[in-house]
Design brief:
Layout lengths: L1 H31 L2 H13 L5 H13 L3 H14 L4 H13 L3 H14 L4 H13 L3 H14 L4 H13 L3 H13 L5 H13 L3 H14 L4 H13 L3 H16 L10 E5 L5 E6 L3 E4 L6 E7 L13 E7 L11 H16 L4 E12 L2 E11 L7 E10 L2 E10 L3 H12 L3 E2 L7
Antiparallel strand pairs: 1-2, 2-10, 3-4, 4-5, 5-9, 6-7, 7-8, 8-9
Helix pairs in contact: 1-2, 2-3, 3-4, 4-5, 5-6, 5-7, 6-7, 7-8, 8-9, 9-10, 10-11, 11-12, 12-13, 13-14
Length: about 425
């Protein structure tokens, strides 16, 4: 019996040492930011029998860092079940709920964490953020103030409060909190960028330029800082420096793209070979089923399908045949008027639809219209610039839309200008 007991005891210690080594290895992985490795090792430790609150808590943190919020909540639930006074577990479960959009559940968890630990500054900040989402700004400020009282040397707290005051249009207090953030040693390009914007809103454009310049020195590719500085230069009447900043923005944007003159172009056409145009090699052509004498297809550099919600960059081609058989049109002029009316009707629900300029032209002895327009569906969507090109070809309407987000249109416009010159009507399909 004694031999059995000794053997058992030795086996017990070897398992404990092994578990301790793994646990330490998992902790080291967490500290180094390798959360996936930490997760795997913590799971091994748990499966090996170490099913205590501390291990589940650490695995829950690994899940949280990996954005696996449901699994993190399950682990924090285990911890709370074992230790109902664990303020950290409530706080981090609240974060999971917050990231999942469950604001009320997050608020409740942060409140419990604060009740358990009234000196928990980060829980106040987290609850304050939840209150901002709920629109309860006065209460949010009170929570941020409490956090600062508890931990007055923590620059992150002032940074959070600065952002809230900016949101509430209290730019003087926003500047004060950014000042304190920087004074306490938290310095990066975005903090200078944000304080610069607050200075400008607070009526100090010169200080704004100073901060935006600091932001640009820390991040020379920050196009937002350059554009804001350009705007303020214009505001102060300094058009030379404003144009220099704008030119730098264009240089940065274009550095991300292959110069248009270096691109190889290919000819694209639909299955029926009704319409041809040249665009860069490697773009995708997506054709829809023809319905009611409408031919419709798209050409885009994006990897999308016909079921995709939207195309950001690319060309839409449509051909409506035998117009007079369905609509009250008798001439090419009537067809273009029909197109303009359809365009106005389809865009009337947009947040913005502005025709910047319109050109009436002749192409191969047929009437055409070319618009440069800006379109935005609503505040949740990007603003687009679009070439809207309509050709009245006998009794048929051909429309071609070249689009790109406003901020990249200046690059793609060079491609579209080149493409417009290559348009051909197919010889195999005689449009009536």
């Amino acid at each position: 019996m004694k031999l059995i007991i000794i053997a058992f005891t030795l086996m017990f210690f070897s398992i404990s040492i092994l578990a301790a080594d793994k646990y330490e290895s998992a902790n080291n992985a967490m500290f180094s930011g390798d959360y996936q490795k930490a997760l795997e090792i913590y799971t091994e430790v748990i499966m090996g029998g170490k099913q205590d609150a501390a291990t589940y808590y650490r695995r829950g943190m690994a899940y949280l860092y990996l954005n696996q919020f449901d699994k993190a909540i399950a682990d924090f639930n285990f911890v709370i079940e074992k230790d109902k006074k664990n303020a950290d577990a409530f706080n981090n479960r609240g974060l999971c709920h917050s990231y999942m959009g469950n604001v009320d559940m997050a608020f409740d968890d942060f409140s419990v964490a604060i009740k358990l630990d009234p000196k928990f500054a980060q829980a106040y900040i987290n609850r304050g953020s939840a209150l901002v989402t709920k629109g309860e700004f006065d209460k949010a400020i009170a929570d941020f103030d409490n956090a600062v009282k508890i931990d007055p040397k923590n620059p992150e707290l002032y940074l959070q409060r600065a952002g809230l005051y900016y949101y509430l249009n209290d730019y003087a207090k926003s500047v004060q909190n950014y000042d304190k953030t920087i004074e306490l040693g938290l310095i990066n390009s975005k903090i200078y960028f944000n304080r610069g914007n607050a200075h400008f809103k607070n009526g100090s454009p010169t200080k704004a330029i100073e901060d935006l310049t600091r932001a640009i020195k820390l991040d020379s590719t920050d196009t937002e800082a350059l554009m804001n500085r350009a705007y303020i230069h214009h505001f102060l009447g300094d058009s030379v420096n404003a144009e220099m900043d704008k030119a730098k923005v264009e240089e940065i944007k274009y550095s991300k793209y292959t110069p248009v003159e270096d691109l190889k172009f290919a000819t694209y056409t639909n299955a029926g070979k009704d319409f041809f145009l040249d665009l860069p090699e490697g773009w995708n052509l997506i054709e829809t089923d023809s319905e009611d004498a409408l031919i419709n297809f798209f050409i885009t550099p994006e990897n999308i399908t016909i079921e995709s919600e939207a195309m950001l960059i690319g060309v839409t081609v449509g051909i409506m045949k035998n117009m007079s058989s369905k609509y009250d049109v008798q001439s090419e002029s009537d067809i273009l008027d029909f197109w303009k009316g359809s365009l106005d009707y389809s865009n009337e629900s947009m947040k913005e639809y502005t025709v910047k300029w319109q050109r009436h032209q002749q192409w191969n002895n047929h009437a055409t219209i070319l618009n440069l327009s800006t379109v935005q569906v609503d505040e949740n969507y990007l603003r687009f610039n679009i070439y809207e090109y309509a050709i009245a070809w006998g009794n048929n309407l051909i429309f071609v839309y070249f689009q790109a987000p406003e901020e990249t249109f200046s690059y793609y416009r060079k491609i579209f200008d080149k493409s417009l010159k290559t348009i051909k009507i197919g010889e195999n399909f005689k449009l009536d």
